## 1
Amino acid sequence: MVKAHSIAVLPGDGIGPEVIAEAERVLEAVAERFGIDVTLQHFPVGAAGVAAAGDPLPEATREAVIKADAVLLGAVGDPALDKAPRHLKPETGLLALRALLGVFANLRPVSVHPALVGRSPLKAERLRGADVLIVRELTGGLYYGEPRGRAASHAVNTLAYSVVEVERVARIAFAAARRRRRHVTSVDKANVLEVSQLWRDTVTAVGREYPDVTLDHLYVDTAAMRLVTEPAAFDVILTENLFGDILSDEAAVLAGSLGLLPSASLGSGPGLFEPIHGSAPDIAGRDVANPIGAIATVAMLLRHGFGLAEPARAVEQAISLALDQGARTRDIAEPGAPVLGTRAMGERITGLIGEEQRSRASVA
Ligand code: IPM
Ligand code: MN
């Protein structure tokens, strides 16, 4: 019997629903081609959750994600709720979702597609060999620190990490490095912060379990600079929640657009899979958003969520082929060049699922 895979789909806000519709289109095509049994069910999160149930992570959504085999999320965020109380902010729903699923390790791979080298503001020679995996701690640090609070003239957030929290995410980074170029760069601010000193000592100790992986440490300010001056110097970047948030947007500059990049958040239960971009309210509902980040997220879901490497590769190859053929959304197009809308890009990639295998088969 074919194993059934259930996916809770949380399109969220802004461009979330548009890019997730294209991710689903590709997912259905790849499932059909590889005979994978997937069931998709939709639930609100973020501002959509507030609209539907007065809660950015409604009870029905909580129950569904816990029972699912994987969670596919679009984006959350709505400027109309920027000033809302904390418990009604879309971002609070996302943080609660990450905590509920216990997804402490966020994998954000960034590579440069050859056809898009010209779309990065960095010089082509700097981009040569750039292929980075950011492993961002996702359920600790400043985002979750207690106590916190805001008064008129004073506000508090706290930064805390335990050894266990650092160890478990470090192990994910070292294990990932073993499947790559065996190099981990741990990023902290150990010249100033006690938390970073604990982080550095803990990562160093975990590193001894992986003698075949090179470990070095950088302060976050230096890492931020080197990421754009010498990106090929990095393989796996391991860092805490806030630094990882910032460095991953910066690293997107290498790829040419934030709209291209996927992520996988892993813990011990169902994984959470989301593109790294936000809800982009300024372009929502206009069929201009780039769905490639969401579609590449489907590949991560298949690989890390379900252990289905071959279908994951088929999705990645279809994206790559579409780019090779010159398919471009607005964010990655040369000025004045023809552009595809969100849906047309999704359809183009869907049509290319299995294309690489077919052409190889016809050569053989
Ligand atoms: C991300 C986003 C989120 C984060 C926001 C929306 C809370 O920027 O996934 O990178 O900061 O983690
Ligand atoms: Mn971010």
## 2
Amino acid sequence: MFQKVLIANRGEIALRILRACKELGIATVAVHSTADSNAMHVRLADESVCIGPPQARDSYLNIPSIMAACEITGADAVHPGYGFLSENARFARILSEHKITFIGPSSHHIEIMGDKITAKKTAVELGIPVVPGSAGEVKTEAEAKETAAEIGYPVLIKATAGGGGRGMKVAFSEDDVLIAWSTARSEAKAAFGNDSVYMEKYLTKPRHIEVQVMGDGQGNAVHLGTRDCSLQRRHQKVWEEASAPTVPKDQQMEIGEICAAAMRKLKYSGAGTIEFLYEDNHFYFIEMNTRLQVEHPVTERITGVDIVYEQIRVASGEKLSLEQKYINFSGHAIEVRINAEDPQTFAPSPGKIQFYHPAGGVGIRVDSAVYQGYTIPPYYDSLIGKLIVYGRTRPECLQRLRRAVDEFVVDGVKTTLPLFQRLIKEPDIIAGDYDIHWLEKYLKADKA
Ligand code: MV4
């Protein structure tokens, strides 16, 4: 096992990782920017190192600074959390060249999944169902027209180096396919320095359902069920559930087993999330994320698995302590993201938290790194905390969520809590009947 883990992140996820390290008896190193000197992760870690000025590119994304912090403290492993350097294959490679363990998959697996065409090809080879689309890159105007005609309109053009929704263009007919294709290419070039694009059938009303997987790099892998993350705005998830409501249990286990089998074949190591669109009762692979995700606690709650603890164990060379047949799925969990944002416009609302009272009681977990008197800096994402609620059934979970949202107080900054107060009353939400467009339509109708 590791002696000392450096946590290359901040906020609630840095705390989440610190806690797992404590339970494993591992010493911790926090790194922080000058804007985060008073942050909770710095206070709770055994040691801390300032790695640069506030801007993330100069601190949390600054590989030489983080390598120096490893050297100074003698850390033998780095946990990257989510965001920042968590899916940076070069960072994973540099660490391994310095005999420091990256707590995550191999740089090879990060690279494969980072290139969306290679990811999709890999998925096909592994027997995972994918969205119908081009075999690879769509390189010419002629190819764009032919491929779209084969797939059938509407089609979606995506950046090979993209992901997370950036640089996508829809074409509804042959009249717009060339414009969509060339716009997608130039936007991809500008955003990623790579103009490669591919094409897919555009699914018009899917749900976003993902499968959590874990492997040990030795051919053992399990799935931890599904999460529905359809409630999102501008590709920012606001509400996540495990298991995905309305998907039959046997179909959930079937797609889960397909994913687990795929990860066994890949000899995947660590935590991963396989993203699907779900429409008309079918799962279609779109991407794989090779990191711990924000919404992992809902999966932890319904399975009893400590995903971060398991990540650290397998990174240190131990076998997965989990076996599929002993993983039970029970009850329902919902996470809502409490952001320091205007609940109507979603404009960031950094500032000082004057009063803070998190919800508690039966079925409640709050993952947060704020405290009363803490000033939320303007430089990073606006997540104040995650409210994770459990119930034996989805209705029980919703009832507790309603109660917990009422109880939660954050004064001094605007938060998304009032949005959740409204959402919990919506018949579609109560019924679990929503797709990836539901929230944006709801917010738009609100303005009109
Ligand atoms: C799609 C799609 C419809 N059809 N692919 C957006 C983020 C990226 N991960 C993939 N995305 C989408 N891919 C096909 N073939 C619709 C989206 C999409 C979306 C997906 C998941 C969650 C929210 C979304 C919001 C808009 C579009």
